[in-house]
Structure to design on (308 residues):
């Protein structure tokens, strides 16, 4: 059995046994909490801090619900009213918060490496969970995407998965790629404009293409990524309509995929840019299931790192 985690910074170095254990635990959390309607007391007496230096709807709310449903006390750190606006360094902020005897810090930061920095410099036994750092990693999103896929297609070795959009700058894509390759996905297709694809050496298992029609053909899962509007210039396409024509998932393109293909998106969605409304809201969409699964995955992660 793989060693229990004390922190979760990335999925890059976790083996299949560890990922499977976390996914299995998320399934058990869903059942034990009666799909979130019953509160558990696994973390009674523990304190969890949400430390978000970037805006968030799904992830921050999901972590807060996960901690509360496990019986923990939750503190939401208000960056706008904190001493960070007075010039306090991240290190001083960390040590100040540690002095208040926290058990876990959930951190999101625009700079790659911030969660790892906190792990290295923490003076207490506080657990650190990465809720997204720069372009580097978003491990709980990778887990919840894997869980959503597994609930419908449990044998990863039989799956062709397509990820389309701004993969180069996406921490979600990197964590999805780590999870899917570790779990043994048969074929992983990475699609987007050349300027938004990662370097080939970063994903040696990936099949790269700029042809979205070809990338969707026969796919069992299609994961669409949000196009940040500031990245549009790098695509060499004139506008959002042109991007959608080349890389948007509409009903016609979805028809090229395998029957029952799962449609996924980490949110927030730019409707009509990377995905058509009728697909985002259609029968094959698993987008809201992803959101729901996020709570159970984060319950599993918090219970794991806090040793319960």
């Amino acid at each position: 059995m793989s060693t229990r985690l004390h922190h979760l910074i990335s999925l890059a170095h976790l083996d299949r046994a560890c990922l499977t254990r976390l996914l299995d635990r998320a399934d058990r959390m869903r059942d034990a909490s009666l799909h979130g309607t019953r509160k558990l007391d696994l973390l009674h007496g523990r304190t969890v801090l949400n430390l978000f230096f970037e805006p968030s709807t799904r992830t921050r709310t999901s972590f807060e619900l996960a901690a509360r449903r496990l019986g923990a006390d939750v503190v939401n750190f208000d960056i706008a009213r904190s001493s960070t606006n007075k010039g306090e360094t991240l290190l001083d902020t960390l040590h100040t918060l540690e002095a208040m005897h926290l058990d876990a810090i959930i951190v999101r930061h625009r700079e790659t490496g911030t969660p790892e920095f906190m792990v290295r410099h923490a003076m207490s036994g506080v657990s650190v969970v990465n809720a997204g750092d720069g372009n580097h990693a978003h491990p709980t999103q990778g887990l919840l995407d894997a869980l959503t896929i597994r609930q419908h297609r449990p044998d990863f070795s039989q799956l062709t998965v397509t990820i389309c959009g701004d993969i180069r700058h996406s921490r979600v894509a990197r964590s999805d790629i780590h999870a899917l390759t570790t779990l043994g996905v048969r074929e992983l297709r990475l699609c987007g404009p050349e300027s938004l694809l990662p370097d080939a050496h970063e994903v040696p298992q990936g099949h790269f293409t700029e042809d979205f029609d070809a990338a969707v053909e026969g796919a069992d899962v299609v994961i669409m990524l949000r196009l940040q509007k500031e990245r549009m210039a790098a695509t060499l396409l004139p506008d959002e309509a042109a991007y959608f024509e080349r890389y948007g998932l509409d009903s016609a393109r979805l028809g090229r995929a395998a029957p029952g293909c799962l449609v996924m998106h980490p949110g927030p969605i730019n409707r009509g840019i990377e995905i058509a409304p009728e697909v985002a809201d259609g029968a094959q969409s698993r987008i809201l299931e992803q959101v729901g699964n996020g709570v159970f995955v984060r319950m599993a992660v918090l219970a794991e790192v806090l040793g319960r």
Observations:
- The chain is about 35% helix and 15% strand.
- The longest strand covers residues 127-133.
- Residues 16-137+291-305 form a domain with the Rossmann fold fold (CATH 3.40.50.1370).
